[in-house]
Design goal:
128 residues; mainly alpha; two-stranded antiparallel ribbon; 52% helix
């Protein structure tokens, strides 16, 4: 018999992931909004591989969206995002210090926080 095609391997992988999620869902506890909100009041620890350390940060809140959506500059958006997450958990984080932190490190921190901001383009393509 021949080896499985890449497509079949991907399907098998998805089936296994789906099965794992179903098992987790069966074991999961039903929670009220109050229980979920009480968990939101605690910062999470996030490992930043490039820095070789953990930081404490809060998740973004639903109410943060308008403030972030209004920011068009990608660098200012990154700083605001870090202030709303890392800055809420660590009072030593300031906008001035974030501006001094290397761009790659800032992007890695955002990626570690699960914000996917590491893919922000450094420039906008122009039409010719």
């Amino acid at each position: 018999m021949s080896e499985k095609s890449e497509g079949m391997k991907e399907i098998d992988k998805r089936v296994q992931e789906d099965l794992k999620l179903r098992i987790e869902a069966e074991k999961a506890k039903v929670k009220t909004l109050a229980e979920i909100l009480s968990e939101e009041d605690k910062p999470q620890e996030v490992f930043i591989a490039d820095l070789g350390c953990k930081i404490k940060a809060f998740d973004l809140k639903f109410g943060d969206f308008p403030q972030l959506a209004a920011e068009k500059d990608p660098f200012k958006l990154a700083v605001k995002t870090l202030m709303l997450t890392w800055g809420r958990a660590d009072s030593s984080v300031t906008e001035q210090d974030l501006a001094r932190l290397g761009l790659v490190k800032c992007m890695r921190i955002l990626e570690a926080l699960g914000l996917g901001m590491g893919k922000i383009p450094l420039f906008k393509p122009t039409q010719t």
